[in-house]
Specification:
The structure is a single chain. The chain is of the alpha+beta class. It is built from 4 helices and 9 strands, in the order E-H-E-E-E-H-E-H-E-H-E-E-E. Strands 1, 2, 3, 4, 5, 6, 7, 8 and 9 form a 9-stranded antiparallel sheet that branches. Strand 8 and strand 9 form a beta hairpin. The relative contact order is 0.23.
Amino acid sequence: MSTEESRHVYRLHSTLELPLEDLREHIEEATYPDGVADVEITRRNNTLILKAVATDESVSKYTPTAQLKASVTENRVYEEDPDERRNSFRWDEEEEEEIESELVEFAAFKGDRETVLQNSLLQYQMFLVLCGIAEAAEKGTLTAISERDGDLEATRIVEGEPRPADIEVVEGPREHQSGQGGVNWRDNKFISD
C-alpha cells in the first residue's frame, strides 16, 4: 500500500455564481491545499479557467493539472429590489425614479464534474478550492461525492453555507430473469393510446 493517501471526486454538481471581482479577491486571499502552490486565473472570451500550479517541481509544465472552468456572464445588479420599489410606489407611477443599477460580471460554475472540474492531477485539491469558492458564493449549490483514504464523503454547500449531506446507496437496474429489462412501453398505464 502506498504512503500517499488516495483521493477522488466521483460525482459533482454545481450551480454556483459569484461576482468575478469577489472570486478574484477570494483566490488571492485563499490558503491552498497541500500540493497546490497557486491558482492561475485565465480568461478566454466568456470562459474563465482556474488552474492548479503544483508545488511538486518535478511535475512537467506540460502535464495538465486540475482546473476549474466557469462561464462569465453580465448581470444587472440593482441598489434595491425593483419589484419591492414598484409595489410600494404604485400610486405614484408618474414620478417613479430610475432605480440605481450597474452591470456586474459573474463567474458561473455550472454543470457536472467533467464540465466544472477537469484533469486528474491535483483534482481533489482543486475540488477543495471549489468548496472554498462555494462558501464564498451567496448564490447556488455545490453537491459532491468524494473519497478520501477509502471513505466516501458527501459535500453539500447551499448559498455559502455548508449543510449536512448523506450518501445513499441504492440498487441499480438489474436484468430480469426473462432477459427483459427496463420499462415495458406497450403496457404502461401512464401512456395513453
